[in-house]
């Protein structure tokens, strides 16, 4: 296919995609709602497996009356109604960051409406991005409370740091859930398998008694006695976990078509069993939905009932996934899926379990209030198979969510550089991070082997879940005031109502700190320390670059020849600066007084929006007069954008510079003067696929120098690359621009070299002991053990040149 036709076709696809996002048909919405069942609702849908077992701790639920069972059911019902349904579905989902959700999305939304980001590389041109302007709620009046609150946050660095730590804390707790949820699911699957096995052994015992071989079966049953059960349960859970994490490298999209049907079947299954149990065992169980039983339960059980709130909390695990998975679907599709299927199915399942337990107070202590005992006997084997699949899907969703969160944090300089593998060419959010995957597996195995008790893991998971919800409530109250410009009383009412509910659950989880709840605190502390150290080191590195950057006047004082030898080719100097000349470049030319005939200061910057449109991707300007052939190019990505491979990126970069030359923009300096560069003169240039008049670059590699082929037959001959720009006739290009394009074309034929700074940081003499520990040991340890900048930027090793430099910060 002709290149020009392909580019125009790609542009049409991009425009069609944006139009499709603006106006969704009902068919699309319903399809997304169906797909969200497997990706978003896997975790919350499997909560009936373990909620009652964790809620009825100690002597709770052991009495002959049904008041306690009704009280727990009432608490489960109102918790599911108020938190996932009212808070998330009807309120929090509206606070999307241009279609993206999650704790970090709320933080980026606040950063966009108020300048509270700590990395000072934001430009005025960034605020002109289309994604910045989407869903704008206007500007609050100058003397209003939202305006004063915004000004206060922008003035005080301490408040900005607190806000960042709060967002990172919520993120770390989500990672903690990602560690605990697979362990809980795997352990409960093995628990149910153990129950079925013992049931099978009991049946086999009866048969073998008839055949006079009772002793053999008795020995088998003895080998599975209570004190030896863990020898089967724990290894089984570990095998499931290893298999689950081993499959992650193949990508979510390869098994995604199985997720939604599994959860759909599971929800229909538990709702049907719930309806059967209600009508067969206790049709009057619906009375427990009255809040009267909540007060009666708490009044009667007192401390025991309050502590059981930690187990009841598990019924809303996965609520945050509705908000975090918003980027893969839409608000309407997630709302439809929850309100029409997930919510009613869960309520029926919990009612059915309560109806069964209200008529069975004599179930064996070990399995009392387990999910499996409430399933009709003839259905236990097929239900078990569905439960295992549903538990794996639920774990998969939180693991995938953890990958997305780490990717967001890494893009916004809050996590060390990691390898991000995009497992789907169609859905940008499906990523795989090998380092995080194996780290999660090791942590999951450690939790499973170390605890060997689902109650302890449930206590740990409950604290992590409610901590994320508290952080969301706090950030949401700020969004209501600063972004939505609503009355402050509405924000206070929101945080007081939902914050009180979540604080009550939080207190019940904290009281079990030494019974497993310490695990998410320890995990969050470790991950939070890593994030804070990395962000602090990155901030200090950027401040050093800003303070030690070389002025444009230094470059201009060198004259037209610049005082250096110019070699053929294009040199891309990677820098985080959006203005000025980085110190790494002056360090390079001081030791090696030569650089390329076309020099580009390249800044790859992530802005606090999920996506940047292709037509707004590049900011191109000129450094010095036209004869210098020195440019600045700022490439802007959202925190969910996919960085192209090196070949496509090079083509887009060179074509953006060519389009800048074609437009006749002088950038910072026109060809007629030597005025210093100004950031305001940068020009927005889109990629070729987004342009209506693209400059096409054709590359041919079939021209071979015959002189090199006649000497040695075994010699490998590299074909020479021929580059040609196909420039549209309109607008007209002057002679100087044509010469500049010709030189750019010749440089591209020679090749592109990536000059990357390799910084080594040390704290300044006289710094505090804490700063020396953080910089000299903490940040340097993370830098040495994280991905190199060339790997994170997908730079080909053969074309990269690293320049080392010591940073005294």
From TrEMBL:
Keywords: Ion transport, Membrane, Potassium, Potassium transport, Transmembrane, Transmembrane helix, Transport. Pfam families: K_trans, K_trans_C. GO terms for molecular function: potassium ion transmembrane transporter activity. The chain crosses the membrane at residues 69-90, 158-180, 200-220, 232-250, 256-279, 306-326, 332-351, 383-406, 431-451, 463-482, 488-511, 518-537. GO terms for cellular component: plasma membrane. Residues 32-185, 212-556 form the K+ potassium transporter integral membrane domain. It is found in: Cell membrane; Membrane. The keyword Transmembrane applies. InterPro entries: K+_transporter, K_trans_C, K_trans_N. Residues 569-808 form the K+ potassium transporter C-terminal domain. It is a multi-pass membrane protein. The keyword Transferase does not apply. NCBIfam families: kup. Potassium transporter. Belongs to the HAK/KUP transporter (TC 2.A.72.3) family. This is Potassium transporter. It comes from Flemingia macrophylla. The lineage of its organism: Eukaryota, Viridiplantae, Streptophyta, Embryophyta, Tracheophyta.
């Amino acid at each position: 296919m002709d290149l020009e036709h392909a580019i125009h076709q790609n542009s049409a696809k991009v425009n069609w995609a944006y139009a499709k996002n603006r106006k969704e048909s009902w068919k699309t919405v319903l399809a997304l709602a169906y797909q969200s069942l497997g990706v978003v609702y896997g975790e919350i849908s499997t909560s009936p497996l373990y909620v009652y077992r964790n809620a009825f701790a100690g002597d709770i639920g052991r009495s002959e009356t049904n008041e306690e069972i009704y009280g727990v059911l009432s608490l489960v019902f109102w918790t599911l109604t108020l938190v996932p349904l009212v808070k998330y579905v009807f309120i929090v989902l509206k606070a999307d960051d241009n279609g993206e959700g999650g704790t970090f999305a709320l933080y980026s939304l606040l950063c966009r409406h108020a300048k509270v980001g700590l990395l000072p590389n934001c430009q005025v041109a960034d605020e002109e991005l289309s994604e910045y302007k989407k869903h704008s709620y206007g500007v609050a009046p100058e003397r209003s409370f939202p305006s004063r609150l915004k000004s206060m946050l922008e003035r005080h660095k301490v408040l900005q740091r607190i806000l960042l730590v709060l967002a990172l804390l919520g993120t770390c707790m989500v990672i903690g859930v990602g560690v605990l949820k697979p362990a809980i699911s795997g352990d409960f699957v093995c628990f149910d398998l153990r129950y079925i096995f013992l049931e099978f052994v009991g049946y086999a015992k009866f048969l073998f008694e008839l055949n006079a071989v009772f002793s053999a079966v008795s020995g088998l049953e003895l080998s599975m006695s209570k004190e030896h059960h863990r020898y089967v349960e724990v290894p089984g859970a570990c095998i499931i976990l290893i298999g689950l994490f081993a499959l992650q490298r193949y990508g979510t999209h390869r098994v995604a078509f199985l997720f939604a049907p599994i959860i759909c079947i599971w929800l229909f299954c538990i709702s049907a069993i719930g309806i059967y149990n209600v009508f067969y065992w206790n049709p009057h169980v619906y009375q427990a939905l009255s809040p009267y039983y909540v007060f009666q339960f708490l009044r009667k059980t007192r401390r025991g009932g309050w502590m059981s709130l930690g187990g009841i909390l598990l019924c809303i695990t996965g609520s945050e996934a509705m908000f975090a998975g918003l980027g893969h679907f839409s608000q309407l599709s997630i709302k439809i899926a929850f309100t029409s299927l997930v919510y009613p199915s869960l309520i029926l399942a919990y009612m059915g379990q309560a109806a069964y337990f209200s008529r069975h107070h004599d179930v064996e202590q070990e399995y009392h209030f387990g999910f499996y005992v409430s399933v009709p006997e003839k259905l236990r084997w097929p239900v078990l198979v569905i439960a295992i699949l549903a538990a794996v899907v639920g774990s998969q969703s939180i693991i995938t969510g953890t990958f997305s969160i780490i990717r967001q944090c890494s893009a916004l300089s809050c996590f060390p550089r990691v390898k991000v593998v995009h497992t789907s060419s169609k859905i940008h959010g499906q990523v795989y991070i090998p380092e995080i995957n194996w780290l999660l597996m090791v942590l999951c195995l450690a939790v499973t082997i170390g605890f060997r008790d689902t109650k302890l893991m449930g206590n740990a998971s409950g604290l992590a879940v409610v901590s994320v919800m508290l952080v969301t409530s706090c950030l949401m109250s700020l969004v209501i005031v600063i972004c939505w410009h609503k009355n402050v009383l509405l924000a206070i009412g929101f945080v007081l109502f939902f914050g009180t509910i979540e604080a009550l659950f939080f207190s019940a989880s904290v009281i079990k700190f030494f019974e497993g709840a310490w695990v998410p605190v320890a995990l969050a502390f470790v991950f939070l320390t890593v994030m804070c150290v990395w962000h602090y080191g990155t901030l200090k590195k950027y401040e050093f670059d800003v303070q030690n950057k070389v002025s444009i006047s230094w470059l201009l004082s060198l004259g037209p020849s610049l005082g250096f030898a110019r070699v053929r080719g294009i040199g891309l100097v990677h820098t985080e600066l959006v203005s000025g000349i980085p110190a790494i470049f002056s360090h390079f030319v001081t030791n090696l007084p030569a650089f390329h005939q076309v020099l580009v200061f390249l800044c790859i910057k992530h802005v606090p929006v999920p996506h940047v449109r292709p037509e707004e991707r590049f900011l191109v300007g000129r450094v010095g007069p036209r004869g210098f052939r020195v440019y600045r190019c700022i490439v802007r990505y959202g925190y969910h954008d996919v960085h192209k491979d090196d070949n496509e990126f090079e083509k887009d970069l060179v074509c953006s510079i060519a389009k800048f030359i074609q437009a006749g923009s002088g950038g910072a300096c026109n060809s007629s003067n030597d005025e210093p560069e100004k950031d305001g003169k940068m020009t927005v240039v889109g990629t070729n696929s987004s342009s209506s008049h693209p400059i096409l670059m054709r590359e041919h590699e079939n021209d071979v120098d015959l002189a090199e082929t006649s000497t040695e037959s075994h010699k490998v001959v590299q074909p020479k690359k021929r580059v040609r720009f196909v420039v549209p006739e309109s607008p007209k290009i002057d002679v100087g621009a044509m010469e500049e394009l010709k030189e750019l074309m010749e440089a591209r034929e020679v090749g592109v070299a990536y000059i990357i700074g390799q910084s080594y940081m040390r704290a300044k003499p006289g710094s505090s002991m804490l700063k020396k520990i953080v910089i000299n040991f903490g940040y340097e340890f993370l830098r040495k053990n994280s991905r190199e900048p060339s790997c994170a930027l997908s730079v080909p090793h053969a074309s990269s040149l690293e320049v080392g430099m010591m940073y005294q910060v």
